[in-house]
Each structure stands twice: as structure tokens, then as C-alpha cells.
Specification:
The protein is mainly α. Helices cover 65% and strands 0% of the residues.
């Protein structure tokens, strides 16, 4: 990995390794969530557009908010964030996100023993909240006690991996391209964290709108 990212900072390499590991915790990336690349045009360009248009302004703030709320088991407020995610996505991204989220709800047998996870899953099953991929991912990582910054990076990796054409990562020569593409998400993670710290220092309510 260090050969691929010879110019990357150590914290970026650590973030990549942890993101790849966490994104595999019991959930296989079998269908795209909000990011989707059809193989036409540069992968890096498509992912940059997703980072700037979806991850930075919408999904990262939502992930941060859900992660914090989950540590206090505030499920009503998590559901409110989930519903704001639903309202912010276009029809295609919304449909994909809800479809990809089923892997979280149907898998992860160890999570089914977690009371808070079960309570939120029941809300989704009863159509009291949509249950988007970002919401479930943030809730999962919080309940696993994963720190916020690695959780954000892990979600970006999950989206990238899920949004690739089936079998693309296994083609010769594509692994390095995918890893280089993912590295572009790490500055967006830092910006989201910095923005959140600035809002905390200024006394603003956290992420009231997405």
C-alpha cells in the first residue's frame, strides 16, 4: 500500500487501511449506494463530483450527526436525520441508498443482539424512517465505538467500492487506480471534521440542516 501512495502522509495511509477494514465489518458491497460509476469517463472525475456534490455538503454532515446522536442513543433524532437524507437525495440516489441499506439490516448477525440497533431496525421495518445507507453505517460505526474520522473515511470507501461496476476491482491494473481515487476522499473528511469543530467552537447547533 505504501508503494501505491508513496507521496501520501502517514495519517492518510492509516485512514485508508482502517477504512477498508471497517467497511467490511459484516456487510459486503454488492450494490451501489449513492455513488455510481458506469465505467464511462474517468473514475477519479466521477468520484470527485460525488465528493463535492453529495459527500461534502450532505452525507458527511449527516454521518457526523448520526454518529454523535448514536453515542447518546437518541434514536428519535437519528430518525430525523435519516428523513432529511431522504429528502436531500434525488430519486436515483435515494433508490440505490435504500437498496444498499438492506445488506446492513439483513446481515450483521452480531448487531441484532444490540438493543439500540434492533430498536432502530424495527423503526425501519415499520416504515417510521427510511433507513438510508449513510444512517445505518454511522449508527453501526458508533455502536462499534469507531472514532468519527475513520468512520467518515470508511463510508467514503464503502461508497466507492459499492459504486464500481461488478468485477472492476479484480481487473488487472485497476487496484492502484481505485486506491488513488479513494485517497481524494481524505481531504474531504478533514474538511468535514474541521467544519464541525469550528461550529462547535462558535456555539452553533450541530448540523441543523443538510
Amino acid at each position: 500500500m505504501s508503494d501505491t501512495f508513496h507521496a501520501a502522509a502517514p495519517d492518510e495511509l492509516d485512514g485508508l487501511a482502517l477504512a477498508r477494514f471497517v467497511s467490511r465489518l459484516g456487510v459486503e458491497a454488492v450494490s451501489p449506494a449513492t455513488f455510481l460509476w458506469n465505467g464511462e469517463g474517468p473514475l477519479a472525475r466521477a468520484f470527485d463530483l460525488w465528493l463535492a456534490g453529495s459527500f461534502g455538503p450532505t452525507l458527511a454532515p449527516a454521518l457526523i450527526e448520526v454518529h454523535r446522536l448514536a453515542t447518546a442513543y437518541r434514536l428519535d433524532e437519528i430518525a430525523a436525520v435519516d428523513q432529511r437524507i431522504d429528502a436531500s437525495l434525488d430519486l436515483g440516489a435515494k433508490t440505490r441508498s435504500l437498496a444498499a441499506a438492506k445488506a446492513f439490516l439483513e446481515g450483521k448477525a452480531e448487531m441484532k443482539a444490540n438493543r439500540e440497533w434492533t430498536r432502530f431496525s424495527e423503526r425501519v421495518a415499520l416504515n417510521k424512517t427510511p433507513g438510508h445507507t449513510a444512517t445505518l453505517f454511522a449508527l453501526q460505526t458508533a455502536l462499534y465505538h469507531l472514532p468519527l474520522a475513520p468512520a467518515l473515511a470508511a463510508y467514503a470507501w464503502f461508497e466507492l467500492e459499492s459504486g464500481l461496476p461488478r468485477g472492476y476491482r479484480d481487473l488487472a491494473g485497476t487496484r492502484e487506480e481505485v486506491l488513488r481515487t479513494f485517497a481524494s476522499a481524505l481531504p474531504h473528511v478533514r474538511v468535514a471534521m474541521d467544519r464541525d469543530r469550528d461550529e462547535s467552537a462558535d456555539g452553533f447547533p450541530h448540523l441543523r440542516a443538510i
